[in-house]
Write a structure and sequence with these properties.
This protein has one domain. The chain is of the alpha/beta class and 343 residues long. The chain contains 13 helices and seven strands. Helices cover 54% and strands 12% of the residues. Helix 7 links the parallel strand 3 and strand 4. This is Phospholipid/glycerol acyltransferase domain-containing protein. Keywords: Membrane, Transmembrane, Transmembrane helix. GO terms for molecular function: 1-acylglycerol-3-phosphate O-acyltransferase activity.
């Protein structure tokens, strides 16, 4: 159960800073212990020290962001002016700084590389960038894919992302503080779908030209078990056509259309961006990361834009359209997916 906000600020935020100090002070010990434990493994499997370095880097950056949030709170009239545009922009700048540093750490420690295949830079495509809001519909698979997506939206494309997240993520103190000060939403695990759709409509309804509402239509990270559960759920509802199309998706869960449709209805002027990515798909659990994280973490991504004028407006057409694009993403993944991460 998630503690009340004042308890999270009183306990979890200071605890994060204490843990960071302890982690930094004891870092040499952790490195020695993990390195010794890894000696019995062949060299390609000795990932422990890299994971320790990244964990400490993450904790350090989180603590720095948390201290910065305190400074922004004071500068914002002890919270009274945080809703104003200039203070909102400072928080987006803080997230941009944090994700850039995390991304840089991943590049150095995991040799991360991200190759993005964009639409051709035609005059029409360039004219639509930062001139209208977008609804981003992305697949959800692999460790850290949501962080990479938000990083690229903020840093490379100058967008201000909005997202609906699980309430449990508020156990992360810096995420809890900064995200709750911006147009985002945290929803409890057992909330009714209507509650999630209400939040999506709220976030979509007042987007400006540089805003981006991020939705993961699959509803969670891809796993083979979830894939079959999604198909079974469609069959239970009597949606034979959707179930049949979902069976043809090898790398994706069947999309849940209600969130995307709610966003489109709430912001009909928004273009829709579909995002595909592959590279670390096989790393589903923490154990997978420990055993099979490659020496070089290479990710390929591609996105497509659908102009607002080309988005279907009736529900049945929207569902078919969404499945059409999901099949397109699935085919792209099949063509670009690397061999399973080996040891």
């Amino acid at each position: 159960m998630l503690p009340p906000r004042f308890l999270r600020r009183l306990i979890l935020a200071p605890l994060l800073i204490v843990l960071t100090v302890v982690a930094v002070v004891t870092l040499p010990i952790w490195l020695l212990v993990v390195a010794a434990a890894s000696l019995r493994l062949p060299p390609p499997q000795r990932r422990g020290t890299r994971l320790v370095w990244f964990a400490v880097a993450w904790l350090t950056l989180e603590s720095m962001a948390l201290v910065a949030c305190l400074g922004l709170w004071v500068a914002g009239g002890f919270g009274g002016r945080l809703h104003r545009d200039e203070h909102q922009e400072r928080h987006y700048a803080l997230i941009r700084w944090f994700l850039s540093r995390v991304y840089g750490a991943a590049v150095r420690i995991f040799r991360l590389s991200v190759e993005v295949d964009e639409p051709p830079h035609t005059p029409d495509e360039l004219s639509r960038r930062l001139t209208r809001p977008v609804i981003v519909l992305s697949r959800h698979a692999g460790p850290g894919d949501s962080f990479l997506l938000i990083h690229h939206l903020l840093v490379l494309y100058g967008r201000r992302p909005r997202i609906v997240m699980k309430a449990a993520l508020q156990f992360d103190p810096s995420l809890d503080v900064v995200i709750n000060r911006l147009p985002n939403a945290f929803v409890p695990r057992k909330v009714a779908e209507s509650g999630i759709l209400t939040e999506i409509r709220r976030l979509a309804s007042d987007m400006d030209a540089d805003d981006a509402l991020v939705i993961f239509p699959e509803g969670g990270n891809f796993t083979p078990r979830r894939r079959w559960r999604a198909i079974f759920r469609l069959e239970e509802k009597g949606l034979a056509e959707e179930a049949s199309r979902a069976r043809r998706l090898e790398h994706l869960l069947a999309p849940r259309p209600n969130g995307a449709i709610a966003a489109i209805e709430a912001c009909p002027t928004a273009d829709v961006i579909f995002v595909a990515h592959t590279g670390l798909d096989d790393l589903i659990t923490i154990g997978d990361v420990w055993r099979r994280l490659p020496v070089r973490a290479e990710i390929r991504a591609r996105w497509w834009r659908v102009r607002s004028a080309d988005v279907p407006r009736d529900r049945e057409s929207q569902i078919r359209w969404l499945f059409d694009h999901w099949e397109k993403i699935d085919a792209w993944i099949a063509e670009n997916r690397p061999a399973p991460a080996g040891t």
